[in-house]
Amino acid sequence: MKKNGLIETDLDGLQDSPLLNNDLAPTKISERSWGTYHIAALWIGMSVCIPTYMLASGLIAGGMNWWQALLTIALGNVIVLLPMILNAHAGTKYGIPFPILARAAFGTIGSNIPALLRAVVACGWFGIQAWIGGQAFNSLIVLLLPSWAFFSWGPYIGFLIFWAMNVYFIVKGTESIKWLEALAAPFLIVMGLALLLWAYMAIGSFGPMLEQPGKFNTFGEFWHFFIPSLTGMVGFWATLSLNIPDFTRYAKSQKAQMLGQALGLPPTMALFAFIGVAVTSATVVLYGEAIWDPVVLLSKFHNPFVVILSIVSLLVATLTTNIAANVVSPANDFANMSPKHISFVKGGLITAVTGIIMMPWKLLSDYSAYIFGWLVGYSGFLGPIAGVLICDYFIIRKKELLVRDLYIRGGAYEYTNGFNLKAIAALVAGVIVALVGVFVQPLRFLYDYAWFVGFFVAFVVYYLLMRKEKSK
Questions:
Q1: Distances 179 to 175, 182, 243, 423, 457 between C-alpha atoms, Å
Q2: Helix, strand or coil for residue 23?
Q3: CB 126 within 8 A of CB 347
Q4: CB neighbours (10 Å) of residue 208?
Q5: Does the residue 340 lie in any domain?
Q6: Looking at the DSSP assignment, which residues form a beta bridge with residue 419?
Q7: Tens digit of each residue's pLDDT (9 = 90 or more) over 318-376
Q8: What is the CATH number of the domain that holds 353?
Q9: From the DSSP assignment, how many helices (H) and strands (E) are in the chain?
């Protein structure tokens, strides 16, 4: 069935295929009910979170002034929006999630390679967000029960309670996520603006941080810091630029997914990062120190109602981000390994447990480890995957997929025993070139551009290999 550019594929007769389960099957056109607002709300819900609030802090600590930091964040999000919209196209058109789309390029079995690379990163992010949310929850307990502050295991219990809240929505499935994001988006924007208004009214301006110059003496010094920082900002959402089909498979149209993403992602990221800068700037005047952690800042407030409302806002913000950004994709990715044995719920639970094992408190040890280690490092793996997928779908296949063959062995995407060795070669080439700078100091600049370098190399290598294949 085809309607308004959307294609619905009948998989009758494939129920026994080992590559199919209900969670990975293409959505019906009747199930594609997410309009522009739902897609925009999804991005607002994911962008309004504590890591976004604190994102500019690492850049300012590294030497940027406030507007340079915000410009870097905004530019990174505009750049990553392009692969986001491109990868979303197949999800909207065919109703398929990311690991199924990856089968077209990597093979029906080989798709597990990019899917698992993406899933591992999501598990790390799940742990980070659960840890942050857990600290906010612990602060709420301390407010209601002051003696709790002396309990050394309090932060870890808060972490596990918030972790369990995430698990609740995992069990409830994707429709609960749509409901959660749609309800939370306007609430989160209002609370963010209220915090900004408080900062301004408290001191009559946005404080000294907005007047502080950057620490770089030359353009060369600035550029040396700017490039890896920009790569880190792209890396912040490089994960979602791959698995965005997991959401746009529910979109009503290509216009809805494109407009929704454009309205929801770059403006929200820039606004909430600015709120973080402005409010932190006000804390310098009010408390004599820059307080970047909003949970710590809330402990300075005296009105219990304000504190409770603010902490609840932080919990909702962190929950919406974690569920949408760090559960949906790995749940589908793990399910792709064995569709008959791993459902969306089981995949989500694997994600939740792995997120604890990855020790998120280590990933948040300092801004350098966070931006230049975590964000830039994993972008060197995800950029090449994006390069292969976009080249395959738009250049090699001209946006035409044989959807039934994505769910069977021996079909058009079988390649060599289920693996497209050319896609794997392109992925490996992209990763090696992107990350070689970690080990070879004169080539450090390649690592600084990890996502961009990996994307370009993988795109070109895959195109050359597949063009040669098609010419035979």
A1: 6, 5, 20, 37, 40
A2: coil
A3: no
A4: 13
A5: yes
A6: 416
A7: 887 788 778 888 888 999 999 999 988 899 999 999 988 877 766 666 555 555 566 67
A8: 1.10.4160.10
A9: 22, 2
Compute how many other C-beta atoms are within 10 angstroms of the C-beta atom of residue 197: 10
Q: Which two tokens stand for residue 286?
A: 């009010």
DSSP secondary structure string for all residues of 194-240: HHHHHHHHHHSSS-GGGGPPPS-SSHHHHHHHHHHHHHHHHHHTHHH
For tokens 């454009």, name the residue: 262
Crossing angle, helix 376-390 and helix 450-470, to 10 degrees? 30
* 277 vs 69: CA distance, rounded Å: 9
Q: Which residues pair with 251 in a beta bridge?
A: 34
Q: Token pair of 346, please? A: 């089981």
User: Alpha carbon of 147 to those of 65, 141, 142, 143, 449: distances in Å?
Assistant: 40, 9, 7, 9, 49
d(C-alpha 104, C-alpha 90), whole Å: 11
- Phi/psi of residue 3, nearest 5 degrees: -150, 120
Contact between 68 and 215 under an 8 Å Cβ cutoff? The reply is: no
165 is in which domain, residue-wise? 2-6+34-366
Q: Is the CB of residue 139 less than 8 Å from the CB of residue 50?
A: no
Helix (H, G, I), strand (E, B) or coil at 7: strand
Total domains present in the chain: 1
Is the residue at 130 inside a domain?
yes
Q: Burial code of 414-445, b = ≥16 C-beta within 10 A, e = fewer? A: bbeebbbebbbebbebbbebbbbbeeeeeeee
The pair of structure tokens assigned to 379 is 């972008």
**Does a structural domain hold residue 24?**
no
Instruction: Name the token pair of 97.
Output: 């999630």
pLDDT along the chain (472 residues), means of 10: 87 90 92 93 83 79 85 92 96 96 97 92 85 85 85 87 88 66 73 82 73 82 89 84 93 96 93 85 80 77 78 80 82 90 90 85 60 70 95 96 96 96 98 91 88 96 86 47
106 in a domain, yes or no? yes
Query: In sequence order, what are the beta bridge partners of 6?
Result: 3
* Residues whose CB is less than 8 angstroms from the CB of residue 57 and which lie 6 or more positions away in sequence, other chains included: 276, 280, 292, 367
Place of tokens 């979602």: 240
The Cα 454–Cα 439 span in angstroms is: 16
Considering only CA atoms, which of 129, 273, 237, 220 is closest in space to residue 445? 220
Quote the pTM value.
Answer: 0.86
